[in-house]
Amino acid sequence: MDRTVIAYVVYLVVSIGLTVWVARTLSRNGRIFLADVLHGNEKLADAVNHLLVVGFYLVNLGFVALYLSGDETIEDTRGIFEALSTKLGVVLLVLGAMHLGNVYVLNRIRRRGIMEREQVPPVAPQGWIAPTVGA
Q1: What is the DSSP letter of 71?
Q2: Which residues contact 44 (CB under 8 A, 6 or more apart)?
Q3: How sure is the predictor about 121, in pLDDT bands with cuts at 50, 70 and 90?
Q4: pLDDT tens-digit profile of 66-117?
Q5: Diameter of the chain by CA atoms?
Q6: Is 7:74 a contact under the CB 8 Å cutoff?
C-alpha cells in the first residue's frame, strides 16, 4: 500500500475520532452550562445543545475532509509522521478555536441574562400612586 494512502487513513481515523470525542465531551458538559444560560429551560437547552453539536460536526468534518489532500508524495516513514503531525496539529487547533468561540459566545449570552435578571425588581410592585399636582 502506498505510504500516502496510509497517512490519509491514519489522519482520517484520528481526526474523526478526535472530533467525535470532543463533540461528546462538549455536549455532555455544555448542557449544564446551556441550562444556566437559558434560565433553567431544560428542553430549550437540549435543543440548542443538539444544534451546536450538529454544527460542530459539520464544520469540523468538513474541514477534515478539505484538509485531507496534500501536494506532497510521502516517500518514507518519517514523511508519514511529519505529514500526520502537521495535519493533526491543524485539526486540533481548529477544534480548540471552535471550542473557545462557542464558550465565548455562550458566556456573553450568560452575562446578558445575568444583567437582565438584576434589572428586575426582587418584589413585584404593590400598587400605583398617581402623581400629585402642586404638592
Answers
A1: S
A2: 38
A3: low
A4: 888 777 777 888 888 888 898 889 888 988 888 888 788 778 877 877 777 6
A5: 97
A6: yes
Q: Give the cell for residue 62.
A: 468538513
- With cell 458538559, the residue in question is 29
Contacts of 15 (CB under 8 A, 6+ apart): 64, 87, 88, 91
How does DSSP classify residue 39? Answer: T
Q: Is the dihedral of CA 121, 123, 128, 129 positive or negative?
A: negative
The residue type at 60:
N
From residue 27, give the alpha-carbon distance in Å to each of 14, 32, 42. 20, 9, 14
C-alpha cell of residue 129: 400612586
